[in-house]
Amino acid sequence: MDEEKTMYETEGDQPNFVLVQEEEKDELSNDPEERCDNDHAARDVPASTPEQHLKRKGRFNFKRFMAVLLIAALSASAGFAGGIAAIQYKAADYISEGTRNQITINPTDNVNIGEAVAAKVIPSVVGISTTQEVIRQNIFGMQQGQLIQGVGTGFIVREDGYILTNSHVVDDGSAQTITVQLTDGRELKGTVLWSDSSLDLAIVKIDVDNLVAVELGDSDKVNIGAYAVAIGNPFGLVFDRSVTQGVISGLNRTITVGNSTQSVTMEGLIQTDASINSGNSGGPLLNSKGQVIGINSAKAASGEGLGFAIPINTAKPIMEEVMKTGTFKKAYLGISGADASLYLQYYPDKDLGTKTGVYISRIYDGSPAYLAGIQQGDVITAINDTKVNTMEQLTKHLFSYKPGDEITVHVFRDRKEIKLALVLGVSPE
């Protein structure tokens, strides 16, 4: 095992827990001039990114897990019973009449916060199973299809079957089959309405009504030290809707998921010490009122108590648009570029007038950037009043706008800052 794998081994990925490997993808290019604003951000991260590599928690090999689980159960030294730090709660008698998402949490001596949150939200948490065929070459040089199965989590955001989850849970929208399991045992076919790997978010639809939807909170009001609950399906549906609790450990975290050849930088994340394991991906992170404040996405490959969730406010405008129109049209700027800091690593003698921002290597003909007069060699430092330090930030910030929105782009040109107004277009993706 090489040094990197040793350093970033997934927690629980020991002999008694075997996780399904992610599909191999094309190696990243370190060329700072090969990145487009409408490209997925995963392609924009060099192998030398200093942040610690993490692994997403989405795909789990149940057959292998059960085999090693049996071995562990037969071994006196396995200690499996104490290794699962999760408790499954069922709806209790203290639930008020009506839909469960309308429960007001007011804990007493007989009902703690964790129990109340679990009772309120568990009916809205679903299991998501996927199958994906991967073509690989066998030892005889023949192409052979291999069926990969994955299990993750999602949660119902509207009563008529809209579900929010991680993009990687549904294979970035390419899964051949998607099966959604409800709390009452029903299994329904799911359809991906929208998915984006740069945000690691996806919206799945099932054809059913009268479901129990979650209550959404405001992730902008989350404070460090606040109570947090995570609900999901760790290690597959055998431990479905397990509940773990902790606190909010940090805000606005930046992590790198993957390895030296395939990585995605995720920014603005909520950090929690609530236990998150393989299969928890796509599940809700909740506050003490049972409101969703984040979507669980990753955990540290080494170390304890380092889980990360995408703020729910990131997903809200996308959800609203998809539920209104059936899809989400990403705003389009029409440039290719790279982090200014990365560009200066390649060309240290250059003076851009700034050490942060997005260096523009190409302007697409007829694009909003072209029409606004943005030029090759400009460095974008802000959109309206929001600073942009990296290509990652620029790409994700565009999700907060709609095609047709007018914005002001701050750029450095010839070491001087200028402001250019433009109207965003529709992404050609």
Distinctive features:
429 residues, alpha+beta, Thrombin, subunit H, 2 domains, seven-stranded antiparallel beta sheet, 7 helices, 24 strands, disordered N terminus
Concise structural overview:
The chain is of the alpha+beta class and 429 residues long. It has helices at 3-7, 62-74, 113-121, 312-325, 340-346, 368-372, 391-397, and strands at residues 53-56, 87-88, 125-137, 143-158, 162-165, 177-181, 187-189, 191-196, 201-205, 215-216, 227-232, 242-258, 263-272, 284-286, 291-300, 307-311, 331-332, 335-339, 358-363, 379-383, 386-387, 406-413, 416-423, 425-426.
Terminal CA distance reads 39 Å
CATH class placement of the largest domain = Mainly Beta
- Biggest β-sheet strands, sense, barrel: 9 strands, mixed
CATH topology descriptor of the largest domain:
Thrombin, subunit H
> Ranges with pLDDT <50 over ≥5 residues?
1-30, 39-53, 61-100
Fraction in helix:
10-25%
What is the count of structural domains? 2
Shape: globular
Give the averaged pLDDT, no decimals: 76
Structural class, from secondary structure content? alpha+beta
The radius of gyration is 22 Å
Q: Mind telling me which CATH architecture of the largest domain this is?
A: Beta Barrel
Number of helices: 7
Number of strand elements: 24
Strand content: 25-35%
Description of the structure:
Strands 1, 2, 10, 11, 12, 13, 14, 15 and 16 form a nine-stranded mixed sheet that branches. The chain has a seven-stranded antiparallel sheet with strand order 7-6-3-4-5-9-8, covered by helices on one side. Strands 18, 19, 20, 21, 22 and 23 form a six-stranded antiparallel sheet that branches. Helices cover 14% and strands 35% of the residues. The protein is globular. It folds into two domains: 40-69 and 84-323, Thrombin, subunit H (Beta Barrel); 331-426, Pdz3 Domain, CATH 2.30.42.10. It starts with a helix and ends with a strand. It has seven helices and 24 strands. 44% of the residues are buried. It has helices at residues 3-7, 62-74, 113-121, 312-325, 340-346, 368-372, 391-397; strands spanning 53-56, 87-88, 125-137, 143-158, 162-165, 177-181, 187-189, 191-196, 201-205, 215-216, 227-232, 242-258, 263-272, 284-286, 291-300, 307-311, 331-332, 335-339, 358-363, 379-383, 386-387, 406-413, 416-423, 425-426.
